Structures are given as structure tokens and as C-alpha cells.
Amino acid sequence: xxxxxxxxxxxxxxxxxxxxxxxxxxxxxxxxxxxxxxxxxxxxxxxxxxxxxxxxxxxxxxxxxxxxxxxxxxxxxxxxxxxxxxxxxxxxxxxxxxxxxxxxxxxxxxxxxxxxxxxxxxxxxxxxxxxxxxxxxxx
Length: 139
Known about the structure:
Elements: H1 3-22, H2 28-41, H3 50-69, H4 75-95, H5 112-115, H6 118-138
Helix pairs in contact: 1-3, 1-6, 2-3, 2-4, 4-6
């Protein structure tokens, strides 16, 4: 693993892992609020109870953060996992009218925290691409 790959994986990995650990003790009201927001991007989460959603979100973020930090997880697998997570975050951004300006792209003040997840998408693409290059070199 080279220095650029380490940077691409450790920074978001530590951030996401910390976020997941912080959500382990979510109360039902906080989980319900997050679930309502998440349902704008991923409607299937409505099927869970707020408690189930909170636990799934916390453990999902812990698993993703851990995968990004674990050197034995390939760049491609880590990138695909990060890309899947990011797709859910960005779908909330683009499907929620209050998050974007009238052009549907530029963030409003409320949308800025989710719009920043475009950086995670770029990192995911880079990890997936570097994984493909490593696979080609092995052949």
C-alpha cells in the first residue's frame, strides 16, 4: 500500500468509524430523525423501527470505517463499500429539495454537510481504480 492509498483510506476510515461509534448510543428520537432523513434517499429504511435503523447505521459505519482502515481489505473492495455508502448519502442530497439551490446541484446552507460527501465519492472512485491497476499488475 503506497502513501497516497494510505491517506485515501485512513482519513475517511477514521472519520466514518468515529461517526459509527458515536451512534451506538442513539436514543429512539435521534434515530427516528436520522431515519426520516435517510428515507428521502433510501426509502427502504422506513421498514425498520427507529431502534433497528440506529443500530444498523451505527454498525454499518463501524464496519465501513474498519474496512477502510484494515490493510488486508483490498482497495477495490474498500472503494466499492465506500461508494455504496456515499451513493446513499448523495441520494439524500439530490432527492431532498431543501438541500440544493433551484438548479438542483449547488448546495443550500442546509445541503452543505451532505454535499461534502461528493469528496467521498471521489475517494471511492480512486480506490476502485487503484485496485484495478493493482490487479492488472498481478496478471
